[in-house]
Amino acid sequence: MPKDMAQDRSIYDRRESGARSYCRAFPASFTEARGSELFTADGDRFIDFLAGCSSLNYGHNDPDMKAALIEHIAGDGIAHGLDLHTSAKEGFLNALTDHILRPRGMDHRVMFTGPTGANAVEAAMKLARKVTGRTNIIAFTNGFHGVTMGALAATGNGYHRGGAGMDKAGVTRMPFYGYADGVDSAALLDQMLSDPSGGIDAPAAILFETVQGEGGLNPASAAWVQKMQTIAHKHGALLIIDDIQAGCGRTGTFFSFEKMGVQPDIVTMAKSVSGFGLPMALMLVRPQHDVFGPAEHNGTFRGNTHAFVTARVAIEKFWADSAFEDDLTRKENLIRDGLQSVANLIPGAYVKGRGLMQGVDVGSGELASAICGHAYENGLVIETSGPNDEVVKVLAPLTTSDDLFAEGFAILERAAYAVRGNVKLAAE
């Protein structure tokens, strides 16, 4: 056991809310981080396959982003600017336009929301309702969109929904792609919306992730996503793609829906959009749907000036040409191979996901948690996902070296081998 794990952590038990989560599985006190590695005060080292739940796609403390941020702060650059014009915002918007939106044929406007993904989802749902004059949102099984009340209505997870303490309204839930064997969920939705007795109110929007992160790394097919766009527009609804966890390169391209032949009406983004782990969220919206009045969806911290600085550098450094994206395809295969070695140790286990958002379904939350716990004891931070936490999920920084991937997967493979005989699979 690393030395740091034995230290006194009683202050957290005495003073911090019981709502704390990740620190229960990873109780070390971390003091430094570089790239894909975390360090404690005692010098213990951990490989990071969590990356702030995909908030650190470019790793910890990227030197170029850090230098730009230090220069901005040292020069008395704006720290907080509401939604005022600032040189930092202008730099980010120009970089986003030149290197991300225009090359992908996207004419979307950028709305800065409060700094969390849930707030971006709230804004997207509100905007769709204002545009269409309707209230119903179509969301999907195992979708996760946040835990504030509007976003929570669209979230499927029963544990989080149970924390609301009141009814969640305004959403109709349908089966996600592949959720029910033999069911074409797109055809089912279209049929129900087309039938005047189908029982679904005309929707303002259809909302989903192309790869469900917290829901268990369930990827939708391109054909299904295309059908959802067709169904949305056929029935007068907007298509909202939640790219908060799956975006910023996590699935191998900047947006998770690239190469799928769709153009969402609204895209929500957060997590790695700042590039540096700083809180920032935004909503991309087609110009014809940009109908909010001034401050109609506002917030004191809409737009993070420090995040503008680092986000600009992230885009210019990693997305100005194709080199970074091209290498993600190679890393996708590397991750799949590493996870397959883990899956081979456990009967019935299989690899799932897409891009650098992959994991192995081991069939049991107890087993997946045991694997992650053993891995942590040997220097690897990795979490679970899925409705029963049955998926061991890799969200390593996209910049992780081949050597660190190899070291991390070796720890993970040893963990699976060590605990597999001690925990029964759910099917047994």
TrEMBL record:
<keyword id="KW-0808">Transferase</keyword>
<dbReference type="InterPro" id="IPR015424">
    <property type="entry name" value="PyrdxlP-dep_Trfase"/>
</dbReference>
<dbReference type="InterPro" id="IPR015422">
    <property type="entry name" value="PyrdxlP-dep_Trfase_small"/>
</dbReference>
<keyword id="KW-0663">Pyridoxal phosphate</keyword>
<keyword id="KW-0032">Aminotransferase</keyword>
<dbReference type="InterPro" id="IPR012773">
    <property type="entry name" value="Ectoine_EctB"/>
</dbReference>
<dbReference type="InterPro" id="IPR015421">
    <property type="entry name" value="PyrdxlP-dep_Trfase_major"/>
</dbReference>
<dbReference type="InterPro" id="IPR005814">
    <property type="entry name" value="Aminotrans_3"/>
</dbReference>
<dbReference type="GO" id="GO:0030170">
    <property type="term" value="F:pyridoxal phosphate binding"/>
</dbReference>
<dbReference type="InterPro" id="IPR004637">
    <property type="entry name" value="Dat"/>
</dbReference>
<comment type="pathway">
    <text>Amine and polyamine biosynthesis; ectoine biosynthesis; L-ectoine from L-aspartate 4-semialdehyde: step 1/3.</text>
</comment>
<protein>
    <recommendedName>
        <fullName>Diaminobutyrate--2-oxoglutarate transaminase</fullName>
        <ecNumber>2.6.1.76</ecNumber>
    </recommendedName>
</protein>
<dbReference type="GO" id="GO:0019491">
    <property type="term" value="P:ectoine biosynthetic process"/>
</dbReference>
<dbReference type="GO" id="GO:0047307">
    <property type="term" value="F:diaminobutyrate-pyruvate transaminase activity"/>
</dbReference>
<dbReference type="GO" id="GO:0045303">
    <property type="term" value="F:diaminobutyrate-2-oxoglutarate transaminase activity"/>
</dbReference>
<comment type="similarity">
    <text>Belongs to the class-III pyridoxal-phosphate-dependent aminotransferase family.</text>
</comment>
<dbReference type="InterPro" id="IPR049704">
    <property type="entry name" value="Aminotrans_3_PPA_site"/>
</dbReference>
<dbReference type="Pfam" id="PF00202">
    <property type="entry name" value="Aminotran_3"/>
</dbReference>
